TrEMBL record:
UniProt-recorded name of the protein: Thiol:disulfide interchange protein DsbD N-terminal domain-containing protein
Domain Thiol:disulfide interchange protein DsbD N-terminal residues, every copy: 46-142
Signal peptide positions (record): 1-24
A Pfam cross-reference name: DsbD_N
Keywords tagged on the record: Signal
Amino acid sequence: MTKAAACAASLLSLAAGTPALSGAAEGDIVEIEVLDGGLTPRGTYMGALRVKLQPGWKTYWRAPGDAGIPPSFSWRGARNVGALSITWPAPEVFLTSGYRTIGYHEQLVLPVEITPRTAGKPVRLKGRMQLGVCKDVCVPAELSFDHQLDSDAGGNPAIAAALASRPWSAKEAGVRHAACSLRPSEYGMKVTARISMPPAGGEEVAVIEPGAPNLYAGETTTRREGGLLVAETEFLPADGNAYAIDRSQLRITVLGQNHSVDIQGCSAG
């Protein structure tokens, strides 16, 4: 078992053996609120989930790195929601006990854009967010939220800042080409991405997401070969069933000191 798989298993074991924390976690470690951002010119509602943590605590990005609990959401009870899109701000890279994890410290604002099922009717954003929070120890939390969005609300600076901190698109970052090669490994599939792009600044960390719920990625290594950024990881099956990898569904995020880059899909190579 890889280091990433072993650590993930231990955290999941912790999660299973620890009571879920609802609302604000024990000692008010973490709490959640819904922010209003009003209507967009497209007629969608803009809101956000703001997760506030006590000083020194952190939570995880959608791909948590070598170890951690990725956030998950349930929107049960939401009303007049036809489609929903989350924008993830660029995360930070942490090194904890020899493990590289990816996430946010003290606050996370997740912009949520909602297309109403019926235009002109109120939108109620209700559900639960499950996440892991860490300081000296890691604990799972389950936070409930319920808020009717205000269509008359003005622009919200916290939402605007979160949207502005999203990773750049491949075009914005000057990515010229991204190719991915696949080869079988002992336990899954090795993936090597070769990305032609200008440096993102400092030590670049790449994350490759499989785009399939029955696969998870192991530890990713990243290196520079001149104008190429080379990232390698291993996709492992979450169960014993057969699987296929669609390169067009792979998502590569490059985290740099100056900016981050979100690359959707790659070609064969």
